[in-house]
Amino acid sequence: MSMQAVIGRTAERLPRRGAALLATLGLGVALLAGGLGATGRAPVATLDRALLDGVLRHTASGETARGVAVVDIDDVSLSAVGQWPWPRYRLAALIERVAAEQPAAIALDILLPEADRASLTTVRDTFRRDFGVELSLDGVPSGLLDNDGYLAEVVARRDVVAGRYFYFDHSGASADVPASAAIAIEGRDDLLDLDVATGVLESAGPIAARTRSAGFVNTQIDPDGVLRRVPLLIAHGGRAHPSLALAALTKALGVASARVESGASGLALVVGPHRVPIDAKGYATLRFAGGPERYPAIPALGVLDGSAPLAGLRGKVVFIGSSAAGLNDLHNTALDARFPGVRIQAAMAENVLRDRHVQVPSWRGSAVLAACLALAAAMVALFVLGSGIALLVGGSVALAAGALAASVGLYLGTGIFVSGAAPAAVVAVLFVAFALARFGLERQRVQAGMRALANARQVTIESMAAVAETRDPETGAHIKRTQHYVRAIASELRRAGHHLDVLTPEYIELLFLSAPLHDVGKVGVPDHILMKPGRLTFDEMEQMKRHAEFGRSIIGSSARHIDGDNFLTIAGEIAATHHEKWDGTGYPHGLAGADIPLSGRIMAVADVYDALISRRCYKEPFPHAVATKMMRDLRGSTFDPLVLDTFFAIEDEIEAIAARYRDAEGDEPHASLELPAAERATRAPPRHSPTRPAPLTATV
């Protein structure tokens, strides 16, 4: 039975045990998927991330950022102005030009941890130390002698938000961070469980000392290497510190603190009039308007040489950073595989200013688990109560699509993202599992039916054979013995590589089942002939020979009512041909050689041997040695040489079968029939006897 047929069967035919199995399986899968989804573990977490990426890509607004701007030290700027790092006075000039446009805030997404070796005082000290040469710096304004000091003065005067980087595995050289660099957190800060940094990397001493506002540039990629969330707060030195984007926003909004609030959907960080959804770790999920091009950047070269229009910077939060490939600040995101870090900061700030966020609620885990359980229950009901493959497949697809659609719809309507991947996965897994389970249950049912059918078939065979046996009671266990002889001979032929196209395992089994009907035609032979103890007359023999055709007719009339190939086909073949002889002198049709069906040739050997060693009303049983000697003499005349040789190849097995199924009265050979030892191998018993038929014709 095909899988499609099994799935499409009506549920009423599913046993109660099967329905309970499906319900248990559904519950187990739902709990597993829901638990993995609630805790963010693979493989469900992988599906969740993939769904979020797809949603972000397909729902990106495509609008150009309005509240932020980027000044980009790009590859063109580096090529024209000089390699990195630039002298600090050049960065100072860049800041001054940007500040002249009166932006709301300036944030420097650049770390300058080492002193500027191009400072005049540094050059003078180097020449003095290495060459003993004293350089005169007379006439140079004091502000230009130290590039770091000059940049520090500009940073302080323009109140630039500087960048820093927090360590989590060791302490940095500048472990002490001024309290002014932290942000005051009000409200439910007790609900926060921020990442705790062990050290910090800041710009060179003079710059750090003059910096009044700073924010970290740390990011955190997901296990698949994609950046989806950024931390807004990190703990260090017992205080909370803001990210570069958050610090720039507080500067632009004129606020000095942020407040943590707990609502129905979880935590939020309130910055001025804006509410930013965060988790307990202080992370916010990025919501991109599009690729990097959605966050316009002005090349630093254009700012320095005055070729770029800067009027658009007024009132915006401006981030100065670099997208140059050599500076390795590019990130893999859902929207672009090479998203510059400075534009990541700009995207986060734009999200806050426009109140466009991705909120992953605190009740997400419970919702996912509930959805998994609900869809699992629906799948169980669908498979138990539904009928027809169209309904089952269509219903499963509808449930999975509904889970995904609900997830996307909730996000589009409220900005809340609860992944429908786990519930959809439950539907997919349960569809396959339920189909396999129903297939297995149906297969068990079919196999049970087949076993019952096989039993009925065997009973039918034995009943038909018993009819013949009641007419010839002296045959005893003849049916059982010949049945096993036939299977043993056929199996050995196959093992030896003969007739492999015919002797398949299935054919051999049918041969075994059919053998008991070889003499069913005897029911058509009169009792006075069938049970005559003496030699048959010619007419009586002719009448006896008709049992082969009677057998074919009886079996054939039954076989016509069964479609396809069946055991009765072989049974009819055996009944009609097991008295044919290899040389063509047998009956009823005088077939010769390979024209005799293989089943008949095998049955002939088994039937004659058992007739010789068994007691009949007209003869005593012959010893095994005598019987086999008689049969050897008939090789190539009565018997197929190959079949007879195979019989002798398993002679021990044949004797064991004869002993196992001996007639109840016993078939002990008569002592007078034993050959003298010297003559056993050279002389066969007489072909004809004045008191009984020839031994081989007695088998009729």
TrEMBL record:
SMART domains per the UniProt record, alphabetical: CHASE2, HDc
HD-GYP domain: residues covered: 453-663
Signal peptide residue numbers: none
Protein name from the UniProt record: CHASE2 domain-containing protein
Region annotated Disordered, chain positions: 675-700
Transmembrane segments: 363-384, 391-412, 418-441
Organism: Piscinibacter koreensis
PROSITE patterns to which the protein is assigned, alphabetical: HD_GYP
Pfam families, A to Z: CHASE2 (PF05226), HD_5 (PF13487)
CDD domains on file: HDc
GO molecular function (one): phosphoric diester hydrolase activity
The entry's keywords: Membrane, Transmembrane, Transmembrane helix
